[in-house]
Amino acid sequence: MSTQFEITNCIRKLRFFADMTQQQLAEKAGVSRQTIVAIEGGKYNPSLELGFRIAHAFNVSIDEVFQCSVNEDK
Amino acid sequence: MTYQITRTLIKIFAGAIILIVYLLQVIGRYQKGIFTLDSLQPLAQLMFIFIGVSIGILIAVEILFHILFSIGVAVKGSIKNGVYTEVEKDIEKTIKQEMVQDEMGKMIDLKSMKIGYIAVGFCSIASLAVLAIGYPVFLTVNIIFCSIFIAEITEGFARMFYYKRGI
């Protein structure tokens, strides 16, 4: 039996509500715009620290930005 | 195109050019009879020259690219909407932001470097296989030398792949 964790995020939605561009978020989180693009597109799972920094940029808790669904294969 | 991808492309291009020039030099000198299969001394001398030249070229290309990229960002910032909109500090900030090496960049660097090492490993095995088959040491030495540039090119392509597809 193996457990798979699928991490999703709602950065795009949060950016939309905060009226923030990818560049602005990248500046606030201290990363490149490319990294934000990759995270938004689900191509890269950020470290815990970066996750917290992104959440801080939106002034929300980390679980409001990132969600995890658990799939257990038997 | 982002700073990292452009930089990688230029590195691949520079590496490929150096490799092609080196191979042309070796083939040309071999045909002229300067290089013989028995004596490796002239080949070693050429290799030393190429190591120095390639380090110099790669550093020069890197500096030139950095300058041109900064100029590009500055020009883009200055002529936004046809008027001067960004002051010097803002331009500097934009350049820094573009060139930032974050955790994803570092991870991509590590992964692509690993692929570069694998390429070197394959080339080393190939050079030994060539020797085992019965080809001269001349060829083995050349494969080992070329593996440096092959690794650089492979690493570049791997980096571009990871930047495009994500990790």
Order of helices and strands of chain A: EHHHHHE
Give the strand tally of chain A: 2
Gap between N and C termini of chain B: 19 Å
Query: What is the count of β-strands of chain B?
Result: 0
**Major sheet summary line of chain A:** 2 strands, antiparallel
Beta-strand fraction estimate of chain A = 15-25%
Mean pLDDT of chain B: 86
Summarize the amount of helix of chain A as a percent range: 40-55%
Total number of helices of chain A: 5
Shape of chain B: elongated
The largest pleated sheet of chain B is described as: none
Order of helices and strands of chain B: HHHHH
Oligomer designation: heterodimer
Largest interface here, residues on each chain? A-B, 17 and 14 residues
Strand composition percent of chain B: under 5%
* Average pLDDT taken over every residue of chain A: 89
| Radius of gyration of chain A over all CA atoms, rounded | 13 Å
Molecular structure report:
- The complex is a heterodimer of chains A (74) and B (167).
- The longest helix of chain A has 11 residues, at 48-58.
- Chain A contains five helices and two strands, in the order E-H-H-H-H-H-E.
- Chain A has 74 residues and is of the alpha+beta class.
- In chain A, helix 2 packs across helix 3.
- A two-stranded antiparallel sheet of chain A has the order 1-2.
- The model of chain A has no long low-confidence stretch (mean pLDDT 89).
- Chain B has 167 residues and is mostly helical.
- Helices cover 84% and strands 0% of the residues of chain B.
- Chain B contains five helices and no strands.
- Chain B has helices spanning 3-32, 41-78, 88-99, 103-133, 137-165.
- Chain B is elongated, with a radius of gyration of 21 Å.
- The model of chain B has no long low-confidence stretch (mean pLDDT 86).
- The interface between A and B is medium-sized, with 17 and 14 residues.
